[in-house]
Design a protein that fits this description.
- It is a single chain.
- The chain has 495 residues and is of the alpha+beta class.
- The chain has one domain: FAD/NAD(P)-binding domain (3-Layer(bba) Sandwich).
- A hairpin with a 2-residue loop joins strand 9 and strand 10.
- Helix 1 runs parallel beside helix 9.
- The longest helix has 21 residues.
Length: 495
């Protein structure tokens, strides 16, 4: 078998890994880039979003194919579970979504339960995400990255993702709703933090819209020769090979196989997600004290309401996080036709989703078990996390806020109570490879996402975000990836 080598090896094919590839190509045109993905290609359009598949049977088959270690049919919600959800209680179907796994042995009703994610396919979460791309608030930004640099990076991320700031600009129903919400929340807010359309990485079409995947980020790179850019599907990374603070390559294998091979690399970027990137670092003997610590996830409060309107809304609205207000709220239309069991609606069904910031606690952490390996041959993951008193207080405040919004816009849908989703359900966990200003044992990487103590090893994804956030983090983590990518191109083109 021919030996592989590349100037840059990227482990993971999701939005941040793809952003690294695209910006390195822009700034270092001659770079040879190899991307590794543990899962398969699921579409002829490489890395395209699965929700754009019109045929529902074909979409379901693709979603099953993306489940990584457990490629089996999703067991749908039962009527009993649906009634539990309507009553605001635990609903077991939420833990059967494609790719989810329980990351500890807690009882499903225990507050320490954490749901992780292990799906794998070319495009990563870029094939499955909801495409929300709001900008972080001032307090969510990283204090040691200059505001001008961060603004530039966020703008570049919006260009890469092709973010649409207002998907349905002529939506009178949504305009009316935003006026109502604005009267409640806009006072004292800067213009960019007032109630507004949710920015989405989508393209409108005559019949709706298309969600953007990594095919949009990579663009013409997908047409390149394998000599310059190649994605290796069904290829797990077993470890990063390194010596004296320098990554020299990676060891790869087909999932389920013990036949490994080496890939020589000039630079390695680990972009396998917030759980599996720390797992790979640990398996490679790269174990800074902060690795896997301070795992942090938004808590989610959801509510289904009815809105009486003669102008049904089409688009999503957003109440942004501001510094003294630890919430980010999305409000948008839903359809009774998508509900698993009939429900009697007298108005338009509208969904409220509130993300609630949670405390950064070093005791909330990942643990790795080298005596057991997972489907990729890596140490198994478990997660220990508890809500702090501050978290519980904010959750109660968040539930009260959802009730206020409900009363202002309409009424609670009959039989539908407010629901707090299991921790981890947002799939937005952060902090596991946190970024730091200095190598003081409290972080894993520097402001350019380079792992402390290494010349040429970088990490990417939501896991590097060190701040307390409530805002959807994808745009933020893609922006940070562009900073790291430009650093790599600057250094490597000079050698």
């Amino acid at each position: 078998m021919q030996d592989l080598s590349a100037d840059v090896v990227i482990v993971g094919s999701g939005p941040t890994g793809s952003a690294y590839a695209r910006i390195i190509r822009r700034d270092w045109p001659e770079a040879r880039i190899l991307m590794l993905e543990a899962g398969p290609y699921l579409r002829a359009e490489k890395g395209a979003h699965l929700d754009n598949i019109a045929d529902l049977e074909a979409r379901t088959a693709a979603e099953i194919g993306a489940q990584g270690p457990t490629r089996s049919a999703y067991a749908p919600i039962t009527e009993a579970e649906w009634n539990e959800r309507r009553a605001g209680r635990f609903d077991g179907s939420l833990l059967r979504r494609q790719g989810l796994f329980l990351a500890n042995e807690a009882d499903p009703h225990d507050e320490t339960l954490f749901a992780g994610f292990a799906a794998a396919n070319v495009g990563g979460m870029g094939t499955k995400w909801t495409t929300g791309c709001p900008r972080p608030s001032q307090s969510e930004r990283i204090p040691f990255i200059a505001a001008e640099q961060m603004d530039e990076a966020l703008g570049l991320a919006e260009d890469l993702l092709k973010v649409n700031k207002d998907l349905h600009p002529n939506d009178p129903g949504a305009s009316r709703l935003r006026e109502q919400l604005g009267a409640m929340f806009n006072q004292g807010r800067a213009p960019d933090r007032q109630v507004q359309p949710m920015p989405l990485a989508c393209t409108p079409t005559a019949s709706g819209f298309l969600r953007h995947g990594i095919d949009v980020i990579l663009g013409q790179m997908l047409e390149e020769s394998e000599e310059t850019f190649r994605i290796l599907p069904d290829t797990g990374c077993r470890r990063i090979i390194h010596e004296n603070g320098r990554a020299t390559g990676v060891e790869i294998a087909t999932p389920g196989s013990n036949d490994t091979r080496r890939v020589a690399a000039g630079t390695v970027i680990v972009a396998a997600d917030s759980l599996h990137s720390p797992q790979l670092l640990y398996a490679s003997g790269i174990r800074p004290a902060a690795l896997g610590r301070t795992i942090n996830d938004h808590y989610q409060v959801t509510k289904l309401i009815e809105v009486e309107t003669d102008q049904p809304m089409q688009s999503m609205s957003w109440i942004p996080r501001v510094d003294d207000w630890p919430f980010s709220v999305t409000i948008g239309p839903t359809s009774a036709n998508t509900m698993p069991f009939p429900a009697d609606f007298k108005g338009q069904p509208v969904f409220i989703g509130l993300f609630c910031a949670s405390d950064v606690d070093p005791g909330n952490r990942m643990e790795f078990d080298e005596t057991r390996t997972d489907w990729l041959g890596l140490p198994t993951i478990s997660i220990r996390a508890r809500k702090t008193p501050g978290d519980l207080a904010r959750l109660e405040e968040g539930k009260a806020l959802v009730a206020r919004i409900t009363d202002a816009l309409g009424r609670s849908a009959p039989g539908f109570e407010t629901v707090v989703l299991p921790v981890g359900s947002s799939l937005h966990y952060q902090g596991t490879m946190r970024m730091g200003e200095r190598n003081d044992g409290e972080s894993v990487c520097d402001a350019n996402s380079r792992v402390w103590g290494f010349e040429n090893l970088y990490v990417a994804g939501n896991g590097i975000i060190p701040t307390v956030t409530a805002t959807n983090p994808t745009l933020f983590s893609v922006a940070l990836a562009t900073i790291g990518a430009r650093q790599i191109a600057r250094e490597r083109r000079q050698t």
